[in-house]
Task: structure prediction
Amino acid sequence: MVRTVISLDADDKAWLDRKAKQERMPMTRLVRRAIKRMRKESEGNPSRFDRLLQETVGMRKLGDGLRYQRKLRREWDRK
Result:
């Protein structure tokens, strides 16, 4: 395990100490547990944009998509 020093506001540290006492575990274990939970949630729930990219990757199989978009937009200018 790697040791890390962090600075906390006095109120946050007091809350953390109370919470650790309530949970009957060392404060460091409580912090590690919170970080693991936060990491799991973050990695398990990609943003909407990331999900959209994952769901639509490779949809256009023919040619250059940007060239196709520009062609369509030139048609808009003709109207």
Helices lie at 10-23, 27-44, 48-56, 65-78. The chain has one domain: 10-78. Residues 27-44 form the longest helix (18 residues). The chain has a mean pLDDT of 88.
